[in-house]
Design brief:
It contains seven helices and six strands. It is of the alpha/beta class. The chain has one domain: 3-Layer(aba) Sandwich (Rossmann fold), CATH 3.40.50.150. It has a six-stranded mixed β-sheet.
Length: 236
């Protein structure tokens, strides 16, 4: 009997899955601590721009951060405290990353860390899947969202509206929480942000594969800008 056969015969699928997840977390930890050390050696810039959870979408001149993207400057675990000083960044950006964090923690930890590293008046710009649209579409029988999702974003097996909703919420266990504007705004306010507003797709900032030209906001996603207060008297 091979070693693989012995493992299969003496363990359950649940145990094997847990072992795979533990191994993944150990690799994330290794890359995280290496990047923490690397971050301390970075030149001390007075005006950082952070692209968090960037995946392959790197921004020249920014600090690009993603735990699984070897091309990024830093492979940090963004569930942890950021290795950046207070008030060092003027702009923090995260596109289709925030929904991959469990709520309330570590999602709120992430928002508070974004607030901490931003300068007074600095901007946090978040892009997440817009959950209001698919839910309303399901309730009203409007097929626009579902046709778009199947054509652009969801795998072929999503061939019923409920499959599409499940994929939107879960994305094969990758999505941890869903947001509409009300819920995202509430979380940002709790973290100390002000002047929170939805914005349209910005092709000079956002990933072009997220653009949907014929939609009013040019995207199926929810993009929000939030500001750290200018006055230190509003510190959180």
């Amino acid at each position: 009997m091979s070693l693989n056969d012995m493992v299969l015969s003496h363990t359950t699928k649940g145990v094997r899955q847990a072992c795979r997840e533990l191994w993944t977390e150990m690799q994330i930890q290794r890359r995280h601590f290496a990047s923490v050390r690397k971050a301390k050696r970075l030149p001390k810039a007075a005006d950082l721009k952070l692209n968090l959870g960037c995946g392959p979408c790197l921004k020249p001149g920014w600090i690009n951060v993603d735990t699984s993207a070897p091309e990024a400057e830093l492979q940090l675990d963004l569930r942890e405290k950021f290795p950046f000083p207070d008030a060092c960044a003027s702009f923090v950006y995260a596109e289709h990353f925030f929904e991959h964090l469990e709520y309330p923690s570590p999602a709120m930890t992430f928002l508070r860390e974004c607030w901490r590293v931003l300068k007074p008046g600095g901007i946090l710009s978040l892009g997440v899947p817009d959950t209001e649209w698919p839910v309303v579409s399901y309730a009203t029988g409007d097929r626009t969202y579902f046709d778009l999702a199947r054509d652009r974003f969801h795998p072929a097996w999503c061939n019923t509206r409920m499959h599409n909703l499940n994929y939107h919420f879960r994305q094969v266990r990758e999505h941890k929480y869903a947001y509409d504007l009300e819920t995202l705004k509430q979380a940002l306010e709790e973290a100390g942000f002000v002047s929170i507003a939805r914005r349209s797709f910005n092709p000079e900032l956002d990933s072009r594969d997220r653009m949907v030209e014929w939609l009013p906001r040019k995207t199926a996603g929810l993009y929000v800008d939030a500001h750290k207060p200018d006055s230190l008297s509003h510190s959180h």
